[in-house]
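Cross-check.
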Amino acid sequence: MQATEPTSKSNLKSSIWRQHCRGVLPLEARLEPWMTDLFDGQTLADLVAQHGSPLNLISPTSMRANLDEVTQVAEDRGVDFQAFFARKSNKCLAFVDEAIRCDAGLDTASENEIQQCLDRGVTPDRIICTAAVKQEALLRLCLNHSICIAIDNQDELDVIASLAQQTGLTAVLALRIGGFHHRGSKLPTRFGFDVDRDLELLDELVDLPVRVAGIHFHLDGYDASQRVTGLAEALGWIEHLRDQGHAPTFIDMGGGFPISYLDHEHQWNDFWREHESSLLGQRSPITYRNHPLGRQVLADSVTGKPNVYPYFQSPTRAAWLASILDTEINGCSVAKRINDAKVQLRCEPGRSLMDGCGMTVARVEYRKQNSDGDWLIGLSMNRTQCRTTTDDFLVDPIVLPIGEGESSPMTGYLVGAYCTESELLSLRQMEFPTGVRRGDLVVFPNTAGYLMHFLESRSHQFPLAKNLVVADGPEGTFELDRIDMPSLS
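Predicted model, tokenized:
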């Protein structure tokens, strides 16, 4: 949930929580009230002692406000709209239950994800399967329950048609398309049928035991103008399908709704300016061994795009969607074109629905200096437990000083449990103005969207992190998510 302007009282509390750890170039995280309520007292320490480190805490109720934001934008423009929560962004079943309560659909990427949704009462018409690789068992499950399958290639179509013929069932399909023409070039993608090369696919579909329910696409990144291009091309395919006798009812624009993790834009800009200076040798490093975060130094300049999420960006979520629907194509807004085509607009947000829904807590186990003299603070977790496919999570953690013993101010790096030189939990150099002690807790804020589970690994046979649901209300109760209790899931 996008944070509101903090009051002076919350500003004071925030400064207290942040005083024990900050980046050498600070990147202060947006914090939700349910998170900060847990920073005081002994509760988090008791929970980590009981359930282990790291521990994921989740609060599913923030999902509703996030969903309401984008739904309202569509409603204001009269667009028939349905969001499908991207299950891949977080494995906890509490979010499936919350999606049901919010009347959202479920975007699934595996047989287990689909079966868990069915077991929890999600109706098949509220499930779409977008798995990148679809084994026969997965396809049979979708066929048996009439779950819509976003098909990606000719081999998938052939297998689905064969299974449908064998069983006498009709497959429900969404055609995933890509390769859109945008501003004079073709948008690259490894997913979907090409909008130019594969148009003849529509002729083949006529004689197959399939029902084409809609058009699907997903674009990497957060460029709103590219989504406009995708929607325009998808509307063209809707017309082609109807000309062939099909009756598609929706366009699914995938996920990728932007959010912002940080409170201050100037901190984001300052960080990259100083990072460039450090790469050019104009100041001391602010990342471990001057890590370039995806950029390169060529001659006397820094080039390339950072390999990190844009942790501060604008517009986000609702305003971003509004900009897409309000864009005019040949004098007609995208919203009106969708309405005139009489199709439902669907989307599959993950990270943006998980905004404000989780945090990860880990215990400090040691402090030491490496051969370069850098202080390393070792946590009971590994980097796959707070990381996606990019180089780093560029958000300041919160340190809760509950450990015992003395400690002096220090500057150093958070490191994890895997036995590799690259096992850093954050590549950014951190300041600990009041020191850091064995037994202190480190909180990584806003990790529910992808960061908890997308790369999660139990190499070295470490146990996976437990996932604890924070209940609403004054009782302050906590219970393990059903995903951690297979017999009850």
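The longest strand covers residues 358-369. The first helix runs from residue 8 to 18. Passed to J.P. for a second look.
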